Amino acid sequence: MSKKAEQVSLSSASIPIGKPPLVLSATVWKILIIVMLGILAWTTAHRYLSPDLAPVAAIAVVCLGFWATAVMPEYWTALAFFLVAMVTQIAPPETVFSGFETSTFWLLFAGLVLGAAIKFTGLDTQVARLLTRLPFRTYTGTLAGIAAGSVALAFLVPSSIGRIMILLPVISALAAQLGFEARSNGRTGMLVAACFATFAPAFTILPANAPNMILVGMSEAQYRLEFSYFDYLLLHFPVLGLLKSGVIIGLTLVFFPDRLPNRTDLDAQEAEPVTREQGMLIAILALCLALWLADAWHGISPAWIGLAAALLCLWPSLRMTGPKCINQDLSYGALLFVAGIMGLGALIGHAGLGEALVQVSGDWINLSPDTPVWNLSVLTGMSTLVAMATSLPGVPAVMTPMAGDLASAAGLPVSTVLMTQVLAFSNVFLPFQAPPLVVAIQAGNLRAGAVIRFCLALFAISLCLLVPLDFLWWAVLGQI
User: Taking the model in full, what pTM does it have?
Assistant: First the structure.
């Protein structure tokens, strides 16, 4: 072939025969699928529930879909939710922006400030250095120790977010001291074990989580039923507390397998003297913890105790935080995210979406005094669906007023029907249902996808294994 013929052949080969097919990116596909699910939720709610609930269902599905897939930054979705809700006037501003008024938001703000102070003063490294003197010989043993300490902390601190904000800097520093890299399985596993172990089993400890207290308070107001600390603990802690802690450790080993790095310098580390700033911060944290423990006595919300501690840490002359802490060290994305999630939950509750779902399901649940196991399973399933459609505190708000009628239909004591709610709000389907887990993802810089997979696995095991075991335990105690 001549040179001229070869050039003609190459040039003709470079001419496209037709336009290439349009290839959409994975992000665009996710957005399209989420929007389609939102439209499906709209049409389904419009047909089977109420036309007024259709836009609420669509907004909830789209927002949760965006947050679950991380297709957009979490704060972007939260801001978009505020915009759409206000432009459409789907709810009053005090409902849409109610997240900024909640104690959860301000407790998160206080926790971020305390976490920044712990890092700025080097207290996290100091505590982690002391923890490395404990006999951590294996990765499994380390996770077990972290889980045990996290559960024990739930007996002391009545706020999940407060516990998580205390644990995260210490566990992160401990992981670094043990030699785990920033994005390693070992570090992620340690943080996930700490967060879930101080969050999930705490639903069996009466004052340790908000849904527990809402349930007990509404039960007393509506049915004159009082649940003592010990009775509540005995009913739930053996299975949903101890056994679930073991499941959390096992799942952490499965999802985040690792081994302790070979560090020959751990035993040689010596404790450094406590600085003036570290000493003041320790005193503030100790006072904060003491006031949290005395919550029932003085009646001050843990959020305002934490905010007072944050103000002390931000006092310039005390030098416990940097001069640009507010502008540089705090994650405003996490704050907007939590405010958006809380606002969405308030919108769903304001519209009555959860209650409508329960009413619609009443036609096919078929409760009967002759089928106690079926009754308990259905009641747990109903509460679980409400938790998915609203929020964890929304379960007692929606289900408690209906407990009397449900108990009559099922032939069960009202107390037993009420306690099925604990099986639901202690078993989180996605971390976005629970603000403490949202805070953990943001403050711990954890991969959202990994936490979601862990949460789904824990949900499935709890639903298929721990819930039936809890029914057996109730039967032993004479609750069924």
Answer: 0.67
